[in-house]
Amino acid sequence: MEKKKVAVGIDIGGTNTVFGFVDKEGHILGEDRIKTSQYDEIEVFVAALYEKIMITANKIGDGIDIIGYGIGAPMGNINKGTIEHSADLPWKGIVPLAGIFNRHTPLPVLVTNDANAAAVGEMIYGGAKGMKNFVVITLGTGLGSGFVIDGKLVYGHDGFAGEIGHTAIRPGPSNRDCGCGRKGCLETYVSATGLKRSLLKIMADSLEPSELRKYSFEDLSAEMIHDAAKRGDYIAKRAFTHTGRMLGFKLADVVAHTNPEAIFLFGGLALAKDLIFEPAKEYMEDNLLSIYKGKVKLLPSQLSTQNAAVLGASSLVWSDRND
Question: Which CATH number fits domain 128-300: 3.30.750.24, 3.40.1190.20, 3.30.1330.30, 3.30.420.40?
Answer without folding.
Answer: 3.30.420.40
